[in-house]
Amino acid sequence: MGMSVTISVATEQDAEQIFRLQYLCFQSEAALYGNYRIAPLVQSLDSVRQELAADCVFVARLGEEVVGSVRGTITEDGAAAIGKLCVHPRLQGHGIGARLLRAAEAALAEERGAKRFRLHTGHRSEGNLRLYRRVGYETVGTAEGADGVPMIVLEKAAGEYAATA
Predict the structure, then answer these.
(1) Which of 55, 66, 132, 164 has its CA 20 to 30 Å from the CA of residue 94?
(2) pTM score of the predicted model
């Protein structure tokens, strides 16, 4: 009998697995833009540890292995910024990303008072855009990442988190 993927709050002990998973998962994004200096690839392990301590971080586990993660924090305008969503390439397309998003949205709304959720993704990242739109996000603008990658900014109201699939 196979194991099922569980979603839980990340712990300090997950930092190295999240760090390695993030590096693996964002290789395809880097290749898409021809830019291997995107933020998730140059982030330090210490920085991941700091985010674990300060932010709302969830992981997807298959047994003891971290196979997905997402982070969120409340911004100055009261929105929840959600980022660095990643799922191990061998498990993509099975709803794990949507489950991670749903967990982060619920915690950010219920525990931290978020009224809306905001995320961004590269303008060529069609798979990401499909997922975000399927779970209720709408394009609200564009931005340029610190690494120069053109980004699409998406948002949705916090009350919509429970209805995401």
Answers:
(1) 55
(2) 0.92
